[in-house]
Amino acid sequence: MEGLPIDAVAEQASDEIGLIHAIPGRLRFRVGGLRRRPDRAAALARRLQALPDVRESSVSALTGSVTLRCPPGLPADALQRRISAAWRETLDPPPRSLGAAAAAEDSADAPHAPANEDARTWHTLSVADVVAALGTDGASGLTPEEARSRLQRHGQNRLAEPRRASRLAIAGRQFANLPTGLLAGSAVVSLATGGVLDAAVTLAVVLANAGLGFVTESGAEEAIARMTARRPYRVPVRRGGAEIEIDSLEVVPGDLLSLRPDVLVAADARILTADRLTANEALLTGESEAQPKSAAALADPRLPLADHDNMVHHGSFIVTGRGSAAVTATGQATELGRIEAMASTAATPETPLSRDLGRLGRQLVLLSLTVCGVVFVAGFLRGHGLLQMLKSSVALAVAAVPEGLPTIATTTLAIGLRQMRGHGVAIRRLQAVEGLGAMQVLCLDKTGTITENRMQAAAFAVGGEAASEHQPDAREMDATAPGRRLLEAAALCSEAEPPGAGGGPRGSATECALLEAALAAGLDVTALRHCWPTRDVRYRDETHRYMVTRHEGDSGVPRTAMKGDPRQVLELCASLALPAGSEPLDEAARGRIAAEIDAMSGRGFRVLGFADGDGDRFDWLGCIGLKDPVRPEAREVIAALHRAGVRPLMITGDQAATAEAVAHEIGLSGNEPLNVLDARAIDRMDAEVLVGLARRTHVFARVPPSRKLDIVRALQRSGLVVGMTGDGFNDAPALKAADIAIAVGGGGATAARDVADAIIENGDLRGIVEGVEQGRTIASNIRKAVHFMISTNLSEILVVLAETLNPGDQLESPMEMFWLNLVTDVLPGLGLALEPPEREVMSLPPRDPKEPILTMRELRHAGLESFVLSGGTMLAHFYGLSRYGPGPHTRTLTLTSLVTAQLLHAFACRFDRFVPLGGRALFGNRTLNRAVGASFALQTLPLFFPPVRRLLGIAPARPMDFAIAALAGAGAFLVNETLLATWSRRGDTGWAARLPGQRGIGMQ
Questions:
Q1: Which of 77, 303, 568, 915 has an alpha carbon within 20 to 30 A of 649's alpha carbon?
Q2: Catalytic residue selected from 129, 255, 309, 445
Q3: Which range has the top average pLDDT, 133-147, 734-748, 776-790?
């Protein structure tokens, strides 16, 4: 109904109000749009109850129905009009946000997330209205019978399983490209013209490449499926007045959840009762600190998810306190389900290399078909037989398409995948390895990615001193020292339990961090609490934002400890603790302490103030600053990304001040001034403005999940290749939409791992840098292999074309072309693709994604090189014609010359710029050396092994033939090296060499 005038909406709603059944004095109506709208259900119930003649009304948001009890004989149509009028008064469609508009635009034809508007409005209702709308009992919960009925009606509390590629789909992907289709077509033509062996060899090449890709990708998919498996768990609920534990799949709307520490929240629920209740919602909101919860209704229906203080959501867990909550949504209807559905509708873009190889394959197919047509017509007009020209055209098709390219790309990516696995990074798709290297922007989630997602006491301001990150050591202090008293107050004014066997402290993240600080300082917390047992506790509330504990020693001496909001604690203190004793707090001292509190807050710490006393008079002991510690490797990783030309930016649900402090700590903006944007401003922002801001902003704070998606899309619309890291449910939609999705940590949210292309299992961010280096090396090396194959395959086409146009010449056979590609394509190409990383690879910016795998300049160079290779070969060919005439001996010389020239050309393709000849420069790649040596060894088979020679239709080579072939190959190599030296002097070489002040990739 969104976008219609209010009157039109009301008229449509009236049409959707219908009578379900009527008996005297009791009527039930269906109300369109009421289902799953508890706010409107409560408003409608209030209006109906005020109507005359209505004795009792019941409005259900679960069933979307209204039941009225009224005097018998009252006309149903009159009641229907009254319901329609009351319903019209509840209609108030909310304005459409940028994010909602973008989502609607981007997914108009995609399956939508389930309507979940009730999750946005339950927090505005009173406890009584919630209980009434859900049709449950706020004390005893649902009856077992009603729970079973609702389970049948609503289904299991299960999130949709992510779609995983089937084995058949993975296998199909290996054949879904034009070069493979052309090779398969050439095999069919060979078979139809009697070339059974030719067809078998072609199909063997196709199947070998497909098999390699299938084994690698299916293995990665299965490994990630094992990591992301979901398992049900037990949930405490109240049913029929008794607390029981049920399977999480059996939770239904209206169930009463029992909330206590360590309980995993199995569904979205509205809190009914709360006693010092806090919940960790980091996986949903990105905020690492446990959030206090209450049962009070909230007024603003448009509050962000992180501010729903009276709700708990699926995916969170209880940290402290106790309470109860009525389930409002289960399964896909939860916030978690909505986020996952949002992620499922986001399309995953192709990586630049995958896009380039696909484009190159299509261009090669078009070139192949064109050349085949030209050769076929030219040969036929010159008197060659139809069958002979058909076979020759098939041979040219094989020559034009580098059969080894898919194998080389797949093998190289698979090796990169295996190497990344050794660094603790699991890769789902082969192309994701290259995608890491293509990244231009990396969006980093703060909580759990940059930080460790735990609280740590990191700064101490003892008494009136300035804050220091040096922790006090209680072992070096006497009992009255302010530092020791500060740590003792932190340990006493706490409900966290000391570490047990094999574990850490238990309690809220804040109190556990304080307890760990006291233990690290050498305090015996257990002995301290034994000496000063707790007699009374006053918990913090909305007015008094501090906690006070009263203790009493064996001698009956009282002791009081206080912690909380430092300004309120300071206000309650009369004196300042000093090493020599206490002195009254004057205004100057209070001003200095307040300034230090502000300074600590400005550095991103959560600051707590501490005091102790005898209950009537308190001494100010100091402050402790807590924070979610940055991962040790984070600063190193950010610096490496800056050097590599990858722009890191932070997207977090946390407060702007906290995010800014973390950004400064890790050097996020490099040498630029740090720009921070509160995501709440995006609501009022035009989409094009966001595109411009996204390129200049370093930190986006207070970002809900849908806005993360908007930011990623804005960066992509500006033409950038975007990587995204995350570990929470709230990251899943943005991860899915990013060009490369990276889930950090094996213990993160299943939703994040489900959509990730790469998973850093050990959480070490250096895996990202390893991935960037590996991806860039692979992309660079595949470009070298493509350059080599384009130039060598073009030389084969030119040789066959020259033979076709030469009167009386004998063409190369299809089997010769197969053999030529087998010997000179795969092994040397693979050797080039396995070049080790160059020193410059992480000091160059990423390649422009709009630039093809080979630029027009590079293609011109490859074309000139192919003319040189074919020219040297044709000189040897014409020598053979003059000595032997057309026939097997000449074809032997031609084949050997072309093989020699192409194999030597592999060494020239190692570099983008000219490198003076020398042993290290020429033979620095041992893999290539072995590959070229193996190819030369293979070429000896047809020369010295009669069965292979007969298969190719050539003759034995003579000593002079070897000398001519060597001269032709070496001459072509030297000419091409001279051309490369000329291009280098002009600066007319590849992408890396065109960068000012940079040496080309491949320079030693």
A1: 303
A2: 445
A3: 133-147
